[in-house]
Design goal:
497 residues, Collagenase (Catalytic Domain), 6-stranded mixed β-sheet, Immunoglobulin-like, 14% helix, 4 domains, 28 strands
């Protein structure tokens, strides 16, 4: 599990127009590159029927990059919102990404704000084979993002993963072989009042200019015949029709406006789709060039349909002793494979004092990070590896207090842990705690009303202690485990299910 101190990060969204749908909020640093595979594929492309496509599930490894001291991570809440957006954008292609393995953390200031050389080094060291490697940084070579053909990985700016931003989808399109719709015009401009030339040269490569009549669409421009000509290599806003305000003229003098609905364009406020030909190429790229990505393909779990938080410990409003680390526990949410957990001093969670990520239904909290004699609110966001679109639960409260049962309890027994918790019926439960002195005590299981249901002697040694507690024939339910030693008592809740 990984503890993340929540940062307030405000994203600068792309230019706003009269027709706001989605945004590519900044420049893409992907080179003007067309793979040999795509050149061959476009000579004999597939014809697809979207309604008959089986979903391809593609593994993704997410690397969150911070500074040398660990500062600057993107918040997990914002990351999962962006992951949700990514899969929504690719749903039309029947391609869905899932998070394989743990989210990885890299503390390196040179990678956090990097140039292409440092970025290539980062990817060469940390890439995980047969997954889409995505590095979330502050500044990826001064861009919103880029795809590295050399290292076959993506770098994304956390500032360009805001609500409705299509940067991740745009760069994932590059990963799956798609060039820009304005391919060949990178960093190239011309007099829009004149006809374009029949060919343009960029980086010592001469390419034919795509015509409006489609006569050369299979080899000019991006090579897709269902994406119309586009000569605009700078960011631009859509008009009310979803097109560029700038009128362009093709080599034959035919006037047109660029289509801003295409995700691989540089429109800033109306991107929303991939064309059929682009979808066919991306799926073929996975199946032909990246079979390891979809080999032994997985079936996604049932979706998370509930965000209900049912606390196990602490109970609603329960007091927790502030000198001890303690474990927030809740009943597992069906379908959830991981959780984001927020703790705040205010019920709106407008500001959080801590945010956690865990793959189990519990998280250890360092009580020393929280102020005593205060009320805290906590909530969970249940997720699975295929879907980041779930919301948060309602908030629940607990108290952090300096009050303890007695001085002897504080001195004698500290850091009581129970596992497994929840436990199954008739299952033995391990106890782990530390003691500052030798002595004798008793460990008991009580009902929530305080009735002792089971009790057994306990010998205390100085330092770390381990023992086993029998749950006997206790029926399913919530109980208290109490250690009595030298006149003091220490409690933890135990769920039997």
């Amino acid at each position: 599990m990984k503890k993340i101190v929540t940062l307030l990060i405000f994203a600068l969204l792309g230019g706003l127009g009269s027709r706001v749908l989605n945004a590519q909020s900044g420049f893409c640093g992907t080179p003007a590159y067309k793979s040999e595979w795509l050149e061959r594929y476009q000579q004999n492309p597939r014809v697809i029927n979207r309604t008959m496509l089986d979903t391809l599930y593609v593994p993704m490894t997410i690397h969150i990059v911070g500074k040398d001291d660990g500062a600057g991570y993107i918040s997990l809440n914002r990351l999962m919102d962006a992951f949700c957006q990514l899969n929504q954008n690719f749903e039309q292609a029947a391609i869905q990404f899932y998070i394989k393995g743990n989210i990885r953390y890299i503390n390196n200031s040179n990678y956090y704000e990097h140039d292409y050389s440092s970025g290539s080094q980062m990817m060469a060291i940390h890439d995980v084979a047969n997954t889409v490697n995505c590095y979330i940084v502050d500044s990826p070579a001064g861009n919103c993002g880029y795809y590295s053909p050399t290292q076959d990985a993506l770098a994304l700016s956390k500032g360009c993963l805001g609500p409705g931003d299509l940067t991740w989808a745009h760069e994932a399109g590059h990963y799956l072989s798609l060039p820009h719709t304005f391919f060949g015009w990178e960093d190239t401009q011309y007099n829009y009042n004149s006809n374009t030339p029949y060919a343009v040269t960029w980086s010592n490569i001469t390419r034919p200019v795509e015509k409006v009549n489609g006569s050369n669409c299979s080899f000019a421009g991006d090579g897709f015949c269902d994406t119309p000509p586009d000569y605009l290599s700078g960011l631009w806003n859509c008009n009310n029709a979803g097109q560029s305000g700038q009128i362009q003229k093709d080599p034959d003098g035919v006037e047109f406006r660029s289509d801003g609905s295409l995700i691989m364009s540089y429109a800033t406020n109306c991107q929303e789709r991939f064309s059929d030909d682009q979808i066919g190429a991306m799926r073929a790229n996975l199946e032909d060039e990246r079979p390891g990505h979809i080999y032994n393909n997985q079936t996604p779990p049932a979706p998370v349909t509930s965000t209900t938080l049912t606390p196990v410990f602490p109970a609603e409003g329960e007091a927790v002793q502030n000198y001890e680390d303690f474990e927030l526990q809740w009943e597992a949410v069906p379908g959830a494979q991981m959780y984001i957990v927020d703790i705040s001093r205010i019920s709106s969670f407008a500001f959080t004092v801590a945010s956690y990520f865990t793959t189990s239904n519990s998280i250890m909290v360092n009580a020393g990070d929280l102020a005593p004699d205060k009320t805290y609110y906590w909530r969970i966001r249940p997720l699975n590896r295929y879907n980041g679109c779930t919301g948060y639960s309602d908030g629940h409260t607990f108290e952090l207090t300096d009050l303890v049962s007695s001085t002897a309890a504080r001195e004698t027994v500290q850091g009581l842990r129970l596992f497994p918790n929840p436990a199954k019926e008739n299952q033995e439960v391990a106890l782990e705690f530390t003691s500052e002195k030798q002595g004798n005590g008793t460990v008991s299981i009580l009902s929530l009303a305080g009735q002792i249901l089971h009790s057994q002697p306990l010998a205390l040694a100085t330092g770390l202690n381990r023992s086993v507690l029998s749950t006997g024939n206790l029926p399913k339910g919530m109980y208290l485990v109490r250690i009595d030693a030298n006149g003091g008592a220490n409690y933890r809740k135990l769920l039997v299910q």
